[in-house]
Structures are given as structure tokens and as C-alpha cells.
């Protein structure tokens, strides 16, 4: 969740009064930082992954599995190492929303060598081991996107009651007790309360239940008129999910904009391919992904802003939650594909333009700043706009979108960065490393071959919904650019490849994930493109062997030969002897499912239908000396 | 017309923006790149050199400071000829417009033929049946590197002579790092022991990257030699290929490929081939 500002949180009423203050100064802060850093050049590739984990408590006697609310305690120990040796540790640990969650990243970012791809999995393994060592018997750290029985009675360890009628409760949820929110930092409860209060009611998340033979309607807790909805009512149902994110540094702001844009159409594709969360509140649903759940779980828009009643107090009708797919491209090449009207305050936009910021970036920032601050600390209200960036970060870091465009932090050696955020977390380090390496390799291929994946933003939005359908990776088709190599466009001098009237519809078509990843007659396929790139690079044998295994996993998931985690979970439930074809994931099914998942993640049992047969790689803790030796004076790390 | 010349050197220039086909075999990639070059050539009949019109290789290289880029190259030889090797390296330096290559890898696969030296100091093939390309080492999962010198008992001695050429370039600091492709562990070790400038790269076929012979792996680890992968055939270009390119009655003498990487960014900024062919 990024940098956590320490201090005393303000109430929603106080925060609301300061909303304009934060917006105004946030924008001034961006103008200043842009002026300082716009011309920053020559940064090397650095990148890192973020893996989120949940702590699970197994009770073998009663055959139950619960989330263990031990994160604060575990985190305190994990952070001791970092405090003792901030530059030497191999991993960094941060709190996440759930009191049962931790987030781990590599101690140092990876660098621009291909050999770095071979240390990712080893580092992930190390992180998992590090947490494991701190857990009592019966508890396990797992990288699972959504805990299947989150929000059912007694899902936490220790068990806590919900207090929906207590005015002092942050979430006031019927299902998700406040104790399941990370207690070690005030940010999480503050966000929960402020989002609820800003919205004027609890968040309202409804997922279609997977209708099996004996599914009982209405589903318990479903809202009036929606008998087939699994209803969720708290931020924790979304932000209490785990995901896989990665951030990479660009050589300058232009490259960062290019990568931000080019990876945008890949977001729904990677969401579908990484789908891992078909069960919510103990019910099998029609959705395979967390995305819409999180989106609705932090939807702080009022009824006016959502367009349900006419605008009176609020300034705008807003189309999306603050957690959603991005609304505009940032590069000049992307401009013509910005076909969704952007909402922003004209005076904020004008201030940014007057501050020397171009149209595309100005409208992006102005659009982020339609949101109110939902977490403000009294110590941070008054700032020096020329040096501080807290107000900018306040709004930036609570726009949780598929991509994030990140300016260099103040007074650091870090450059312009782009964050890729759609992926669901996978069960094993092997799979997570595969996804991470695939995306970072793809960025190198995009830059080397100057590939173009742009399609209209409205089509990316459409794809985001397709991606979350049950079994989307195998059954859905997605809008995708026909010719990413751009051969046809260059002949007539029309580099954007658009017809005279600006219509881009001939440039894209519907493709399956298999076609996008593996190619077809008229489309090269992302993995073949990566292989072409690799054949032109100096890759060491071990790294290449590992990368081939990763790419094979991606290819077989795409072709449908291997299951997504979501499909695997569904199968486990549907074939469980206790399953009564009623969509309900009972405590026992939940226990058996997670127990088996634990055995697979630890390598105790194989799972060829999920992982294939070749999932032991040559990943290693460090770059081989033979490669490091030839980097003298040219540090890529 | 360059087909009238006795010997041609065809330089594709930077083909990154020209050939974007994915997943091609290297020999098909080379064919396509030569084809676009020959279709729109700039020919210098005096030097026998053919370039591709509208090439941006030099802009791509000069866009960066020399120390910001890494230039690697590979020479493909199927005949044992010191002269061909020298010509290949000289042409690389000239085409790239640089004083030094960061690395150069030699791929030397002698044909199962006998050689005589003709009047030009070249080794001409007298009994030239070329080996079937792409036959050996293609079984996935089977232990790697082919029997490099099969059928040519003198191959290692020929290789040592060629290596001497590369050592001279290395001593003159025109090549920083020397590498050799496809050697079996014994041959590699022998080359290593006998050389003044040691190979620091051992290149093996990608198909074997998960099943590297332990002897080679251990030797490389012990001596800090980079074990790198390639997906190149033993014979990258043949007379048949040349005749399909309307270079009938030409045979290839040598071929090179170069790649220009932006250091520490994992970005490929230029790539191209140079081949030399002569009238039969």
C-alpha cells in the first residue's frame, strides 16, 4: 500500500473540510516536482515485485481453517531485521489492510540484467520461509487472492463478533469485524470509516452466485430484488484480498509514459490469466477475480456522484470507483485512443497547464484529483509545496488503478516509475515469478521492437469486465490490437495508423487469450515475441532454462491446457464429497481446499493440472560471479 | 548489378524496425533480412559491398555514448580460414563504426570435407557436401552439447589457428571478451588450456540449456566463464539459400551477426547481419 504516513488521523468531518486544501496543495506539489524532475534522464532498469500473503490457521481436529490475526506481531519481528540492517536485508515487509495479511518485497530492486530473472523465485521462496519461521505450529503463510470463507461466522482466529450497530465501529459490517482490519497503523481503519462516511452508507458489493442444481435462492443476505447476489458490505472484502504487483523504473519520463500506455491493454489479459478468486463469503460465484469486489469495496462515491440521484451537493458525476481501470493514456501515441470523457475540475487542469504541464499529463493529474482525501493526518496538513509531496501522494496513492504512473520521490536516486497492478496472486512462488518475469520481459520487448498494443480506453474497460467472467481465460474473447509491430502503418506516413476520420476500429479485433499469448496466423503472439527478443540477448543457460519454464506455464495457461487458480479452486469444490451442489463452500471444504493448496505450495504433492510437470526451476539466490565479473564499473544492480 | 561481381559483402543494417516477425528460425530471419536488403540495395561495385537503403544503424549506435551500449557479435564459419575470420571481424568494426566490440563469439563448424588452398590463400571446398543442418542435439531433455568435431580429426587444430586471430584482436583491445559456440566439454577445455586469451563465454544451444553437460558446467563455474545460450544452426547460410536470393552460383564464405544493447536496461537497440559470398 505504499508509504505509510505516521500520525494522528483526522475525523471525516475534519478531513472533508480540508479536502480542497489537500487538492490545491497536492497539485502545487506536483507542479514543483515535475519542474524539478521532468528532465531526469538515463535511469537504468530497476524493478521489483510485491507479493501479499495471508496467514492461515489450520485446526486439524475440527477440520477448520481461519485467517490468523497475527500480522502485526509477525510484522514487528520481520521489521526488526530491516531496522538493524536496512541495506543488507533480502526482503522488506509492510502492513496490508487485513490483520491477517503481510506484504513482502525484495530487499533491493532487481536490475537490468537478464540473470536477475533467475533470482526472483528464490527471493520469493526466501520471503515465504522468513514468515513461516515466525509462525506457531498449525499456522501457514499462503499467497491466496481471497480467503474463501472471509466474512463467514468465525472466519478469524481468534474469533471476533461483528458490531454493525456500534457507531464507533469503522466498517459496521454484518460480516467483517473491525478486529480483522490491521490494527498496527491507524490508516486502515481511518480509510474504512472515511470511505463509508463519505459515501453516506456502507459499501455495497453484490456478486452473482454460481447457480448449481441445489443452489437456494434467495442467497442468504442478498439485497431485495437481487435474490442471486452474494452480498458483501465492507472494505475488507476487497482490500483484504491479496494481489501481485510490480513496479519498474523507466530511463526517463517519456519511456515511463510509453510503458504506462502500452501495458494498459495487457491489464485485463493478465487479470484473466491470473484469475484466482472464485469464492466470496463462502459462496462459489460467477466471477473468477477480485477486481470488481475491491473496486466496490472502496467506492466512496455518493449516490449523486454515481448518478442515482441528481447532483446537488457534489461537483461531478463520476463513472468509476477510485479503484478501477485507468481512464486515459499519457503518451502522444495514446492520445487518439482516449475515447472516454475525462472528468476533472477545470481550474485544477488550468493550474497544471499554467504550471508548464502538457495536456495529457495535466488531465491525468486533474482527473486523479477529483477524489477527496480519505485519510489525512493532523501532522501533515501544513506543508512546504516546494519540497513536500504528501498531499500529492495522498490523492495519488488512494487512486488504486490498474496502472500507476509514479514520479520520483523527493531527494532520492529513484527515477520515473510505472506500476502494474491487475494480477491476482498465485499459489506458488513458481507461478508468481513466472507472471512477474513475463511482464518485465514484455516491457523490454515493447521497448526493443517499439511495439504498439494501444486500443481505445473504452475497449480496455470492456475487456476488464470480460476478464472477470467465470473461466474467462479459456472462454472469453478480448479486444486486442491486430498488428502490434505496426508494419502496415508506416507505409502511408500515418504513424498512428488511424483512418482519416480518426476511427480506430479497423485496428483491433476480438481474440482469445490463447491467440494473444501464443499467436495465430495474423498475430505473432506475446510469447513468440519474447522468444525472438531473447534470441538476440546474451542469456545465461540457467536463466534461460528458468525463463522457458515460466513462459511454458504462461503458454499452457493461455491455451487452456493448464487450469487457472480460479478454475482449480472451482474443481476442488465441485468434486468435494461434502459439496451439495448448493454453491456453498462449507468449513470442511474450505479446510480441505486450503490444506491441499498448502501441500502444493510446499511441493509435497504435485499438481500437474495447475502447474504442469516442469515447475522446478534453476532459480538461485544471487547473480553468478561469471556474469557479475564482466560488469566492472557498469553496475546494473 | 552486384550479381556481376565475383565477391559480395551484403550488410543488412539494423533490421529491428524492418523484420518484426516473431518466433522465426535464425536461418529464416537471415533470409528475410537479406531479401529486404537485396530488394532495395545501395551497391558499391568497387568494394563489392551491398547495403540496405534507408538503414538507421549508425544513428542507433551514435544515439548513445559508446560506454552506454554493449555490442556483441558472432562469426559463423564453416571453413577453416584465417583470412575469412579476419575479413569478418574487420567488416564488423567498419560497419558498426566502432573501435572495439564488447564480445565476439566464434561459431566454427567445419564441414566433413577436404580442403585445398587456392591461389588467393583461401580454402576452397573440393568435395563440398554440406552437413544436414539442424540434425544433432535436437532431442529435448537429452544431455546437451553435440560432438562438435565429429568427422574432422583436425578440427581442434584448425580452431586453435582461428582462435589465434581472435587473440590478436583481443590483445589490440578491439574485442573485450572472446567466446566460442557449441564445443563439447573436452574440446572446450583443450582450447581453454592452450589459449593465451581465454574464452570467457561458452555458448550452447538453447535446446540444451536445461541439460548442460555437468563437466562443461563445472568447468565454466570454476573458471568464471559465462555459459550463454543461442538458437543458431550450425550452418546459418548455404549456397541454396543464396540461389533463392537470386545469387545463383554463389557460395557463402562467412556470416556475422551483431547486436547492440543499451547497458543495464535490457533493451535491444540494433541488430543486423553481414554475409560474404563468392562466385563458385
UniProtKB/TrEMBL annotation, chain A:
Enzyme class label: ligase
GO cellular component, one term: glutamate-cysteine ligase complex
Catalytic activity: L-cysteine + L-glutamate + ATP = gamma-L-glutamyl-L-cysteine + ADP + phosphate + H(+)
InterPro entries listed in its UniProt record: GCS (IPR004308), Gln_synth/guanido_kin_cat_dom (IPR014746)
GO molecular function: ATP binding; glutamate-cysteine ligase activity
Protein's pathway: Sulfur metabolism; glutathione biosynthesis; glutathione from L-cysteine and L-glutamate: step 1/2
Keywords: ATP-binding, Glutathione biosynthesis, Ligase, Nucleotide-binding
GO BP, sorted A to Z: glutathione biosynthetic process
EC number: 6.3.2.2
Keyword Ligase recorded: yes
PANTHER family attached to this UniProt entry: GLUTAMATE CYSTEINE LIGASE (PTHR11164), GLUTAMATE--CYSTEINE LIGASE CATALYTIC SUBUNIT (PTHR11164:SF0)
Annotated family: Belongs to the glutamate--cysteine ligase type 3 family.
Record-given protein name: Glutamate--cysteine ligase
UniProtKB/TrEMBL annotation, chain B:
Region (Disordered): 119-140
InterPro entries: Gclm, NAD(P)_OxRdtase_dom_sf, NADP_OxRdtase_dom
GO cellular component: glutamate-cysteine ligase complex
Pathways per UniProt: Sulfur metabolism; glutathione biosynthesis; glutathione from L-cysteine and L-glutamate: step 1/2
A biological process from GO: glutathione biosynthetic process
Transmembrane regions: none
Cited Gene3D superfamilies: NADP-dependent oxidoreductase domain (3.20.20.100)
SUPFAM superfamilies tied to this protein: NAD(P)-linked oxidoreductase
Domain NADP-dependent oxidoreductase: 19-231
One function term, GO molecular function aspect: enzyme regulator activity
Protein name listed in UniProt: GCS light chain
Subunit-structure text: Heterodimer of a catalytic heavy chain and a regulatory light chain.
Keywords recorded for this protein, A-Z: Glutathione biosynthesis, Ligase
Biased composition (Polar residues): 119-138
Family to which the UniProt record says this protein belongs: Belongs to the aldo/keto reductase family. Glutamate--cysteine ligase light chain subfamily.
